[in-house]
């Protein structure tokens, strides 16, 4: 069968015609104004139509319809959906994080992507692993107005108890990442590093310059705060003898004034 010449090409948005091209006419282009439709006539033809600038009102279903010349005027059409999104001026941000955490401490932080349409999809990662949904805290989407447009701000919380496995063995830290995306039109990430906070432990080693008391010493007598003089000196306290090294201070308990009173006596 022979290919018939084109009689008309028509474009529709949500069922309403906004552009037509009839090759057989002296002025082949016709434009019908619709909300969100701004046709660039000089960049449109029988083969395509150009819309610029796009607005939020440009979102919708578009259909192209092609008709052949008579006598049959056979017609075929195809459609596609256009979604206009508003991406944020800045990437997502993480709030509420401390620089260091104890193992076993609960971390509660938020990730926010502001002023978008539709609201950005947010996901959390810890050390490149996706955080399961049950550890996240969804918050209601907030509506905001920017330059006359109603936009949306989305926030997703993360609640996680720090474990030893979270921390890198060589560098005691963990990487936390938040990803904000809007379909395939927008993808941004933000990352932070948090370190491990170490707990102080009481030293059980013998301190240099102090000999251990004799075994018959009472436990309550071992807690003293001792100040030294330049020369090596012995201090008698209730039958318990300490050897003191000059120029150093050792904190073993009670108050300095008590020991100094014993020493001066």
Structure description:
The structure is a single chain. With 265 residues, this protein is mainly β. Helices cover 3% and strands 44% of the residues. It contains one helix and 19 strands. The N and C termini lie far apart (125 Å). The model is unreliable at 209-259 and 261-265 (pLDDT under 50).
Mean pLDDT: 81
> How far apart lie the N and C ends?
125 Å
Radius of gyration: 38 Å
Q: What fraction of the residues are assigned to beta strands by DSSP?
A: 35-45%
Number of helices: 1
User: What class do helices, strands and sheet pairing give?
Assistant: mainly beta
Q: Could you list the spans in which at least 5 consecutive residues all have pLDDT below 50? A: 209-259, 261-265
Order of helices and strands: EEEEEEEEEEEEEEEEEEEH
Helix % is: under 10%
Count all strands and give the number.
Answer: 19
Strand order of the largest sheet: 3-2-1-4-5
Largest sheet: 5 strands, antiparallel
Overall geometry comes to: elongated
Question: TL;DR?
Answer:
The protein has 1 helix and 19 strands.
């Amino acid at each position: 069968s022979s290919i018939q010449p084109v009689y008309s090409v028509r474009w529709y948005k949500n069922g309403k015609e906004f552009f037509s091209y009839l090759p057989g006419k002296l002025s082949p282009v016709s434009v019908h104004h619709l909300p969100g439709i701004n046709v660039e006539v000089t960049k449109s033809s029988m083969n395509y139509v150009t819309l610029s600038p796009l607005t939020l009102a440009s979102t919708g279903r578009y259909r192209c319809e092609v008709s052949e010349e008579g006598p049959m005027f056979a017609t075929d059409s195809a459609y596609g959906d256009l979604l206009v999104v508003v991406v944020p001026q800045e990437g997502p941000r993480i709030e509420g994080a401390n620089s260091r955490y104890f193992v076993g401490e609960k971390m509660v932080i938020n990730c926010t992507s502001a002023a978008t349409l539709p609201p950005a999809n947010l996901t959390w990662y810890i050390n490149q692993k996706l955080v399961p949904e049950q550890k996240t805290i969804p918050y209601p989407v907030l509506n905001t107005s920017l330059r006359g447009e109603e936009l949306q701000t989305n926030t997703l919380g993360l609640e996680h108890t720090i474990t030893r496995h979270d921390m890198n063995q060589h560098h005691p830290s963990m990487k936390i990442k938040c990803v904000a995306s809007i379909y395939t039109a927008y993808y941004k990430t933000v990352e932070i590093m948090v370190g491990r906070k170490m707990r102080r432990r009481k030293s059980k080693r013998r301190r240099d310059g102090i000999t251990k008391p004799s075994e018959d010493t009472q436990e309550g007598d071992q807690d003293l705060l001792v100040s030294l003089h330049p020369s090596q000196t012995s201090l008698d306290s209730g039958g318990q003898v300490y050897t003191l090294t000059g120029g150093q201070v050792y904190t073993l308990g009670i108050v300095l004034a008590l020991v100094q009173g014993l020493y001066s006596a």
